[in-house]
Structure to design on (275 residues):
């Protein structure tokens, strides 16, 4: 599933092709279920900027309006020179004036992605309701402490997957954040000390930045970036899907990673690094 680093990667890759004038907008019949709100037809509007908030891509349009795109389980936006012969392509924007990357295609085999095409007014209402992004300066140690204080009885690792509290954190990231922060995945939020909250914040930065640098993390059959390529983020993982803790290996010590199931999701941790 595309998580925050993967959505950030797609944003970074699409940005150089802007401005993109939507001279033609083609929607497949299957997008009816995916387009949740369409205040206007985007034909002849220009995408001037793309930003990310949590796992939302926000396309700013000129002369007005916004497209909000959530990639769901398997969505991606891909740029190409010619229309893609892609059976899971659901939206196609075409800018004929471009010598290259004049086609922007939304591809989503599982079709859990969704869209809103909103006027400025309706966008503002939607944006104000979004939770604070974990990479925002407002998502600081105090903010995390406040969340833990409010929900003190949550095992930390599954709680990191709560999209209202930690928007954009996915399963692999949650295991990696706990590992790099040195915290056992089963620890309760109420028992996490102030210096450990700082370690969680630092670990979040390392995990997000590492994954963005390698253009996202692709597991079997999963996410593709805007060029249709797999991300290389798997190389950065220290415990997730690993037999041995990579942090221990760096110290010349071999420690077997322990796999457990928490809240129905696979959790990986290092018994030596995590207390
Ligand atoms: Zn270790």
């Amino acid at each position: 599933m595309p998580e925050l680093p993967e959505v950030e990667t797609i944003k970074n890759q699409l940005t150089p092709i802007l401005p993109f004038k939507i001279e033609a907008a083609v929607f497949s019949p299957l997008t009816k279920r995916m387009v949740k709100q369409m205040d206007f037809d985007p034909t002849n509007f220009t995408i001037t900027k793309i930003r990310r908030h949590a796992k939302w891509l926000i396309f700013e349009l000129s002369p007005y309006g916004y497209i909000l795109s959530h990639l769901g389980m398997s969505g991606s936006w891909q740029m190409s020179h010619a229309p893609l012969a892609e059976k899971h392509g659901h939206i196609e924007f075409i800018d004929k004036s471009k010598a290259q990357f004049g086609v922007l295609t939304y591809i989503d085999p599982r079709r859990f992605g969704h869209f809103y095409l909103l006027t400025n007014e309706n966008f503002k209402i939607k944006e104000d309701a979004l939770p604070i992004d974990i990479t925002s300066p407002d998502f600081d140690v105090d903010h995390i402490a406040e969340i833990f204080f409010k929900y003190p009885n949550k095992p930390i690792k599954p709680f990191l997957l709560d999209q209202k509290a930690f928007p954009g954190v996915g399963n692999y990231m949650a295991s990696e954040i706990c590992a790099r922060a040195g915290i056992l995945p089963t620890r309760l939020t109420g028992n996490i000390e102030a210096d450990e909250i700082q370690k969680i914040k630092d670990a979040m930065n390392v995990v997000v930045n590492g994954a963005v640098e390698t253009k996202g993390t692709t597991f079997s059959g999963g996410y593709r970036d805007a060029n249709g390529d797999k991300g290389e983020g798997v190389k950065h993982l220290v415990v997730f899907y690993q037999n041995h803790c990579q942090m221990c290996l760096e110290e010349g010590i071999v420690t077997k990673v322990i796999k457990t199931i928490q809240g129905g999701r696979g959790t990986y941790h290092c018994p030596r690094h995590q207390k």
About this structure: The chain has two domains: 4-128, 141-269.
